[in-house]
Amino acid sequence: MSASPALTVAVALDQARAAGLDRVDRDVLMGALLGRDRAWLLIHDDHPLSPAQAARWSDWCARRAAGVPVAYLTGQHEFHGLLLQVTPDVLDPRPDTETLVDWALERLAALGGAAPTVFDLGTGSGAIALAIQHRHPKARVGAVDRSAAALAVARANGERLGLDIDWRQGSWFEPMTGLRVDLIVSNPPYIRPDDPHLADLRHEPREALVADEDGLADLRTLIAGAPAHLRPGGWLLLEHGHDQADAVAAIFEAAGWHEIGHRLDLGGHRRCTGARRP
Ligand SMILES: C[S@@+](CC[C@H](N)C(=O)[O-])C[C@H]1O[C@@H](n2cnc3c(N)ncnc32)[C@H](O)[C@@H]1O
What we know:
By secondary structure, this protein is α/β, with parallel strands linked by helices. The chain has 2 domains: 9-66; 76-276, Vaccinia Virus protein VP39 (Rossmann fold, 3-Layer(aba) Sandwich), CATH 3.40.50.150. Helices cover 37% and strands 19% of the residues. The chain has helices at 9-18, 23-34, 38-43, 51-65, 70-74, 98-111, 127-135, 148-161, 217-225, 245-254, and strands at 76-79, 82-85, 117-121, 140-145, 166-169, 181-186, 230-239, 258-264, 270-276. Helix 2 (23-34) packs antiparallel against helix 4 (51-65). The N and C termini lie far apart (79 Å). The chain binds S-adenosylmethionine. S-adenosylmethionine binds at residues 91, 93, 97, 122-125, 127-128, 144-147, 150, 171-172, 187-189, 207-208.
């Protein structure tokens, strides 16, 4: 009996399409499977997969079709030009969060100080802290997460990328006792516990996503606690849900913050709100 013919790149990609995977996911997964870029895949679509690669491909397609994020399958995700290792212990960093990083870099440029200090609260994979440190090497950047498992992923990313971050475990401002910085940034949990979209996010850690009080509980805690940890003139920049901009601005306003402003995400929604310390 002759062995069955090897699965080629083209046939494997067709199988993935039939399983419901979209074009971008198919290309990213095949690139990661073979360690090749998209241009190579286009030219070599008759390249045969080894039996081990074919088995992994079939496993990845089934898990992706079941909603597992691509980054959990490949173990990595590019964020703001950095390749981060990502595991199911951390939120898969979203392109929309690059908006918050860009705003933080703008604020740091406006500060003009020699070595501004920045803290990223709820750092997850370390995405925001690492991107800021990478783009603004003079900044002294710290990062907090309550989850020890998440912080281990973030720390490993920092070591691999050669970026020196002051990693601290604890709840929000707890690990910042006695510390005042120029800028605090955070992408905290902000999804309402009854949000129907949560079903699509079931593979990511719930404690990274969900907050009480219509999703505003952690945003309120951050706005209430930040003044005690910001220097005069310091800024707090927050990511939140696409429909929470007015609510977050109202919380800032009620607490007497200045220069309240917003930034838009890739879809044109007011995704970030920030202000200067009262
Ligand atoms: C939406 S994720 C953001 C992760 C990462 N900053 C990003 O943008 O991809 C929120 C993060 O906040 C952390 N977190 C939740 N509650 C916290 C708390 N009370 N104190 C510190 N971190 C917390 C979660 O563990 C999670 O890593």
